[in-house]
Design a protein that fits this description.
The structure is a homodimer of 334-residue chains. Chain A has twelve helices and 13 strands. Chain A has 334 residues and is an alpha+beta fold. In chain A, α4 packs across α6 and α4 packs parallel to α12. Chain A starts with a helix and ends with a helix.
Chain lengths: 334, 334
């Protein structure tokens, strides 16, 4: 790289933390983990054309590259602290880096995350963020603690990001065009959720001691609740009519599409968690204090697999579980 | 990805560590940093065609992707503990992952590094490793501690990896061809250094309390010693005849080329460090116990910049400081 991109980002992402003994600028960062806390570490990569469409604004990409990692920390009930950024760019593009840094810094400041290291390399556009956080020893939320008989909850609303992606794919226009020409209120809301997902950090912290298992919804509810079931060796039933769907999604799609998007669409970064049903009132009140609402959507069962039930309790055929790759949208557009 | 590559790697890289409370398989890893230790964190990316030639064996790539990060930890005097791996692959290639995992695991086992998390994505071949280690609080080696009057040292030998790269570039053949057809002993040694660099972990640990500043030689001696000078606000003089050069490099190149490769060639992953000259005997003895030799190559001066001196103490014109990008070798071959 012709100029030091990480240095440029460092200037934009200055977050003062007393636990950073040495930040960007040496061979490695030196960080302080207080006694009684466990370190929580995760890494996620975004690849152009796979995880985001090619004309995504750099600021949105900066935000999202951190958001997807903070979402993983949130799912553990961890408090985010530090991040490392590995950025591969086709060329040293100062405007790109400035925009990226702005979006990254905006979210980092919101959660007091210090950028403590990174690497910039030349190559196809790929962003890998490693996020580090902390949780009191033994208090982390995991995927493996769900028990038969417990209730299943999800924060916020599901399907918005997948709805935005489907709109892009079906309309054949780009994100920037859609901003300018098709910015009905509902679509704006969906795009906002796709481009600037808000990791449920406060909710994750609030759920410590309350949730028995937790995961973030990145691949889609069915897939991610499936991970909880596998790790916990249980099954689950989901009531399709209970799934929380936003007004924006309802305004943009018919009911069948809304349900499919809520069940299988990924990229929402809500938390799906389990807890004894009798905790519901406490959970709702605690989450409300954290600025988050949640919905009870089903129950954990003995056995394995997920059944989706209609209003009369009949099992429905479930749509494919996977996540709609951005590459599909891209393939249609090129 | 069609199958879970990280799971496949996990099976190959099982290192038992009591400080991994939760490893691969949840939203994030849970790790224990003992009281009195600082966490040391770094990340480095390898891009196909930039940091390694396209026909590099997967096992070599696995080794090197971890080695370059352990080298950064070594330069801090840190003991490596954990790694996260973000791997972007054009397709879910089981043979590639098996080979990569073997090389990665070989080096990880040597240094008791546990792979605790990762992400696999589809896209152009790019590998980002985040390495985490520990150092007793306040004992880390940094770039900023050098003082005028101190001596400059370097471990091992310089220029071998750059020599291998130059051979590839000049001969126009690939790595695998060179293995088979041109494997003279000296060239094998150079290729080994390029493909399987040995991070100086033991030397880094041994230098705690002895070195005043330290860096690993990844971009080339002039560039990396330059980083120490900048961070420490000092200059340096390097005696060209003192530079340690391997027998293998001497056998393959003339003296002028050897010197240029030793001064400016990158990718050797030796440690360059500073210390009071009177510590030399203690340092050499301590490093010898750690299985490493070092050479005194110059001194830190007041002021700024690096002067390279010949046997008579005259300043020489220095070659370009940068690192020879693999992309040059590739460009010549395609």
């Amino acid at each position: 790289m012709e100029f030091d991109l990480i240095e440029a980002l460092r200037a934009r992402t200055r977050v003062a933390r007393g636990d950073v003994a040495l930040g960007i600028g040496d061979d490695a960062a030196l960080l302080e983990v207080p006694n009684g806390m466990q370190l929580v570490a995760c890494t996620d990569t975004l690849v152009a054309g796979v995880h985001f469409v090619a004309d995504t604004a750099p600021a949105d990409l900066g935000w999202k590259s951190l958001a997807v990692n903070l979402s993983d920390l949130a799912a553990m009930g961890a408090e985010p602290a530090w991040a490392l950024l590995a950025m591969t760019l086709p060329e040293a593009d100062e405007a790109f880096v400035a925009g990226f840094g702005q979006g990254f810094a905006e979210l980092a400041a919101r959660h007091r995350v210090a950028l403590v290291g990174g690497d910039t390399t030349e190559g196809p556009l790929t962003i890998t963020v490693t996020a580090l956080g902390m949780v009191p020893t033994g208090e982390a939320l995991t995927r493996s603690g769900a028990h038969a008989g417990e209730a299943v909850f999800v924060t916020g609303a599901l399907g918005d990001a997948a709805g935005a992606l489907r709109f892009l794919r079906d309309s054949g226009i780009g994100i920037r065009d859609s901003d300018q020409h098709a910015a009905s209120t509902c679509r704006s809301a969906l795009f906002q959720r796709m481009l600037r997902p808000g990791p449920r950090v406060a909710a994750g912290l609030a759920l410590r001691g309350l949730a028995s298992a937790c995961i973030d919804v990145s691949d889609g509810l069915l897939a991610d609740l499936g991970h909880v079931c596998t790790a916990s060796r249980v099954g689950a039933e989901v009531e399709i009519e209970a799934l929380p769907v936003s007004e924006a999604l309802r305004a943009a799609f018919d009911e069948a599409s809304c349900r499919e998007l809520a069940l299988a669409g990924g990229d929402d970064y809500e938390l799906c968690f389990t807890a004894p049903g009798e905790s519901e009132a406490v959970i709702m009140a605690t989450l409300a204090q954290a600025g988050c609402r949640a919905t009870r959507i089903g129950r954990i069962t003995a056995g394995s697999g997920i059944r989706v039930l209609d209003a009369r309790g009949r099992a429905l055929a479930t749509p494919r579980k996977g996540w709609e790759h951005f590459s599909e949208a891209r393939a249609r557009r090129t």
